[in-house]
């Protein structure tokens, strides 16, 4: 079950906003509503956020992100549609019941930190806990723990003004963590920070999320931030969600021209990981098998490369058609594995890290999962395509320099 769901959510500002929803249902455009003094800020937004996910809402200024997040935390009532948190529909809650859900399920980090200037860092971190009814000792302990998580051990007695911008936002983050809610909403939380600090905070948030298993809805107008942070990204335009998907899905398969144009300048090499560009191996061969068996598999399945694995599927290397043909010709009874053919990379390795020596690489890269087992292969042509910003087909048509000789059916085969 999703932790958080939005179902056909609308927010229209103006008098008698319900009119706007009805007009939109009838097919009216935004301009028509504007003429009636109505602003449609969020139009028919539906999505589900899974437990432990970083769900990014990305869109230009005015696209409706802040309004959307305010409906999720119950600050704005929806004009139509539902927000369901942990099975509870906010539209059905009032007064104390609504405040309880907001307090216990959702915490929020703001762009401008929202720290109280005359309270200490520790008091700021503990701020949300008083309303939760915790006693002073518990509040202080939780706040200190949260400050420790964001790398601010020992800063509890300082005043916010003594801290840099990045540190102040860590206090904002600590305050949200101290509330110990499962869901954290972050509204342009890093947008006011210098690029270097921002990057550091992004990494730290991803690391914290993995450690604490929080569900995070993260709002940003920065596409690169969205692509870097989001397990999935919802792209908003003019109040509507245009597409929801992983960074790879949005980059590789944009749903419409708007999304395609929006993402065209993204540095794919920085966003895409080895896991996203690899191909699952069509066939593998056990390390104890000989070259003739490999030769047979390569021919029968017309493989460009064949990964060699141990019984537990950890990779030993990869054999190529040309190599294996030569080995069979020479009568070798061992698979011709070489050092260079055994380069492995992790699933999360950024593509950019693999491109440096793409042109020199003569065999596919092997991609392994966290347990070191083979997850897939990245053919050299994929790297060259990424490097030249050309589709794979173009690189294939132009040819790869020094590509291995293809194994033809009439290759001379000598029995060992
Ligand atoms: N309280 C309000 N009253 C009237 N109109 C509003 C109100 N809040 C937002 N809007 C309008 O709703 C639309 C969406 O605004 P919203 O702030 O949600 O966008 P955003 O994507 O968060 O933009 P930004 O990044 O600039 O904050 C805009 O046209 C805005 O002018």
Overview of the structural elements:
- With 416 residues, the protein is an alpha/beta fold.
- It has helices spanning 18-25, 30-35, 65-72, 95-105, 121-125, 127-130, 136-149, 165-178, 195-212, 223-229, 247-252, 257-263, 268-271, 274-277, 291-301, 321-330, 351-355, 380-388, 392-398; strands at 4-13, 39-49, 54-59, 80-85, 88-89, 106-109, 183-187, 215-220, 232-237, 240-245, 284-286, 306-309, 315-319, 344-346, 365-368, 374-378.
- The protein contains 19 helices and 16 strands.
- The strands form 4 sheets. It has a 6-stranded mixed β-sheet with strand order 6-7-8-3-9-10, sandwiched between helices.
- The radius of gyration is 27 Å and the shape is globular.
- The model is unreliable at 400-416 (pLDDT under 50).
- Bound molecules: adenosine-5'-triphosphate.
- Keywords: Amino-acid transport, ATP-binding, CBS domain, Nucleotide-binding, Transport.
- This is Glycine/betaine ABC transporter ATP-binding protein.
Blueprint (SSEs and pairs):
Blueprint: E1 4-13, H1 18-25, H2 30-35, E2 39-49, E3 54-59, H3 65-72, E4 80-85, E5 88-89, H4 95-105, E6 106-109, H5 121-125, H6 127-130, H7 136-149, H8 165-178, E7 183-187, H9 195-212, E8 215-220, H10 223-229, E9 232-237, E10 240-245, H11 247-252, H12 257-263, H13 268-271, H14 274-277, E11 284-286, H15 291-301, E12 306-309, E13 315-319, H16 321-330, E14 344-346, H17 351-355, E15 365-368, E16 374-378, H18 380-388, H19 392-398
Parallel strand pairs: 3-8, 3-9, 6-7, 7-8, 11-12, 14-15
Antiparallel strand pairs: 1-2, 1-4, 4-5, 9-10, 12-13, 15-16
This protein binds adenosine-5'-triphosphate.
Adenosine-5'-triphosphate (ATP) is lined by residues 13, 39, 41, 59, 61-67, 221.
């Amino acid at each position: 079950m999703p932790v958080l769901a939005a179902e056909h959510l609308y927010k229209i500002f103006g008098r008698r906003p319900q009119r706007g929803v009805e007009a939109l249902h009838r097919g009216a455009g935004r301009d028509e509503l504007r003429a009636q003094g109505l602003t449609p800020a969020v139009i028919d937004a539906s999505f589900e956020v899974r437990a432990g996910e970083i769900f990014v809402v990305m869109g230009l200024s005015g696209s409706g992100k802040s309004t959307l997040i305010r409906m999720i935390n119950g600050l704005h009532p929806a004009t139509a549609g539902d927000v369901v948190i942990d099975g509870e529909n906010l539209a059905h809650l009032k007064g104390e019941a609504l405040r309880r859900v907001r307090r216990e399920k959702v915490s929020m980090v703001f762009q401008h930190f929202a720290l109280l200037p005359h309270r200490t860092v520790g008091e700021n971190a503990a701020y949300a806990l008083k309303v939760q009814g915790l006693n002073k000792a518990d509040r202080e302990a939780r706040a200190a723990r949260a400050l420790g998580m964001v790398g601010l051990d020992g800063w509890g007695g300082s005043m916010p003004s003594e801290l840099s911008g990045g540190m102040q936002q860590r206090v904002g983050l600590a305050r949200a963590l101290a509330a110990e809610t499962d869901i954290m909403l972050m509204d342009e939380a890093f947008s006011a920070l210098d690029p270097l600090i921002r990057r550091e905070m992004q990494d730290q948030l991803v690391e914290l999320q993995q450690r604490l298993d929080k569900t995070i809805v993260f709002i940003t107008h920065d596409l690169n931030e969205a692509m870097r942070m989001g397990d999935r990204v919802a792209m908003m335009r003019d109040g509507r969600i245009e597409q929801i998907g992983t960074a790879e899905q949005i980059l590789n398969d944009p749903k419409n021209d708007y999304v395609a144009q929006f993402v065209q300048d993204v540095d794919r090499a920085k966003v895409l990981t080895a896991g996203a560009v690899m191909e699952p191996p069509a066939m593998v061969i056990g390390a104890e098998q000989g070259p003739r068996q490999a030769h047979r598999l390569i021919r029968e399945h017309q493989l460009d490369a064949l990964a060699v694995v141990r019984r537990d599927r950890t990779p030993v290397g990869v054999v190529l058609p040309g190599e294996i043909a030569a080995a069979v010709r020479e009568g070798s009874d061992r698979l011709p594995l070489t050092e260079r053919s055994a380069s492995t990379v992790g699933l999360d390795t950024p593509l950019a890290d693999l491109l440096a020596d793409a042109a020199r690489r003569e065999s596919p890269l092997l991609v392994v999962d966290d347990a070191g087992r083979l997850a897939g292969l990245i053919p050299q042509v994929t790297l060259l395509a990424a490097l030249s910003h050309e589709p794979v087909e173009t690189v294939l048509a132009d040819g790869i320099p020094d590509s291995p000789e293809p194994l033809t059916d009439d290759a001379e085969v000598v029995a060992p």
